[in-house]
Amino acid sequence: MTASRAGEFLYRIPGRPASLRPGAHSSRLDGGSGVFLGLQPLLSRPNPRRIDLRRSLTDPYGQWLVRNMSERVSVPLYVVADMSASMATDDKREAIACLVESAGLSAWRTGDPFGFVGADRTVRTEWFRPATHARGAGSRLAELLRSAAFDGGNAAGLLDAVRHLGKRRTLVLLASDFHFDLGTLRTLLASLAGHFVVPVVVWGAAESVANVPDRGLVDLADSENAARRFLWLRPRLAERIRSALRQRRTDLIATFAQFGLRAIFIDDGFDPDHLTHHFLGGTDDATAVA
User: Is the dihedral of CA 92, 98, 103, 104 positive or negative?
Assistant: First the structure.
């Protein structure tokens, strides 16, 4: 597995959010500054202060034209993380910590507040951080997460995370291995429908198709309670495990697509460039079925 690294990533909000706080994102709000959207006739947008004299004098129809501007606003960025026992492996814990550190830095650079919600069976109040503009909030939290106990029996608390996000529409990085049934996943995604959601699927080395050997003794952990058992692999059984992993990936991608979402898969270490590539609209190789 490639070593994880934390660093800044670039992101943008889909659509035009509404907010009263100035920031870096184009909004639906009409303003005197911000993003230039085009010219419109004065009669359809009666604001004489924005008349463009040069363009109006050259308009072939003799219309008075005004500049249509969109205000720039801030949008909170939250990481909502699964802290159940299935996330307790070193590689998953490190990926979550790097994601938090990177998201905190990226939000601060963009001028957005950063927050965190950690959950297992319930939302863990000691791991709830309201959105803040404080510099270094993500880095400090990441260091604590690297030694935190990921020991909850399930991730049902994710269903309650929406209550901690506030009323403003928020960019949510929803981080989990998603080792729960698809019905629960659909309920979770429906509960977050009022926010901008990006699923971040965090899988460890043991869940990589490439790491399943044809033969040998493997150490398996139960996805619910992290109980460990040993299994002797044979070629036929190994292929069944690989097939199940591929199918699970396919099912997750299809379920996210039902909600108009495209997931980021982290299964070879965290890389902030991967998130930049995702947000800026590139083809996400990580969503391809291995």
Answer: positive
Regions in the chain scoring below 70 on pLDDT: 1-5, 15-40, 42-45, 49-50, 66-73, 209-233, 282-290
- The domain locations on the chain are 22-73, 77-287
Q: What span, in angstroms and rounded, lies between the C-alpha atoms of 133 and 213?
A: 47
Residue 102 to residue 87: CA distance in whole angstroms: 19
Q: Which CATH architecture best describes the domain 77-287?
A: 3-Layer(aba) Sandwich (3.40)
Other CB atoms within 10 Å distance of the CB of residue 262: 13
Query: Which pTM value belongs to this model?
Result: 0.77
Asked if 290 and 252 count as a contact pair (C-beta separation under 8 A), the reply is: no
Helix axes 90-110, 137-145, angle to 10 degrees: 170
